[in-house]
Design brief:
The protein is of the alpha/beta class and 324 residues long. The chain is 37% helix and 25% strand. Helix 3 crosses helix 11 and helix 11 runs antiparallel to helix 12.
Amino acid sequence: MQKDIDVVGIGNPLMDIIVKIEDHELEELDLKKGTMNLVDAENIKKFEEKILKKDKTLVPGGSVANTLAAMALLGAKVVFVGKIGEDEHGDVYEQKLIGGNILSRVKKANGETGRVISLVTPDSERTFATYLGVCTQLEKEELAEEDIKKAKVLHLTGYQLEEPKLRETSLHAIKIAKDNKTKVSIDLADPELVKRNKEQILEIIKQADILFANEKEIAELTGKKPEEAVTEFPWIETLAVKMGAKGSIVRHKGSIIKEEGVKAKAVDTTGAGDMYAAVILYGLTHDKDMTTTVRAANHAAGKVVETIGARLERGWEEIKGMFS
């Protein structure tokens, strides 16, 4: 089958509500800095009430959608699969997908679209309070099966591997991918998530061809520092470990590539990993030189931390030019 789609992503369509907050205010909310905290409908409304008077930035988010949006800006053909609510957030979310040249395969359900309150402290670290809404209700029958078959890569994150129904749907998608020579890409997404689901994740990544992790996530999974951890999981073709301002280290087809980070004035680290993954996946699906790809990925991650929000809206021509 002709592989005419670069990446199909299965993700949690979440509306991002980004708020700057002081450290003491974060402590008052009883959230551990730098973590993703799942909350229910009642608690998300409590958080929303507490930040009511603060300046907020609202953007469509979710790790996978952020990655696909960046890939689309680079010129890749991408498809997003997820579930939204029949509400205003859901309508805006889908409009933004289509407006961003992402092929939308979102399904609607009776209920609320998921949302994330992204709390950014003065050190630019982000802490999430996440209400998943209907996005965990994605059924196996609602997968874009033909798109997965025609894709070069299926991309998902650890967030799709925790909630039982969504995990079942994601594992079914992985099986479709493996049966049709579509590579499987997984981003570990969050160290606390890895800690909670270590055995399951170790089992699932046996199916992975591409793996993304940051220092904390890979340490949680392997107990090792990036330089040692990058040699783990020999069946994985491309293993990328992100090290923030220090850059990243990647094992690709047996070769180790280590590239320095880009000097940046960080104001919000939200989305750095998503932009990094976008450039790596772009390079892989367009047969680009891997050292150049890693350098460009570090550049994209460095640029996005200089802006509020998880997406880099400008600078893609410069990044694309790094490949020429």
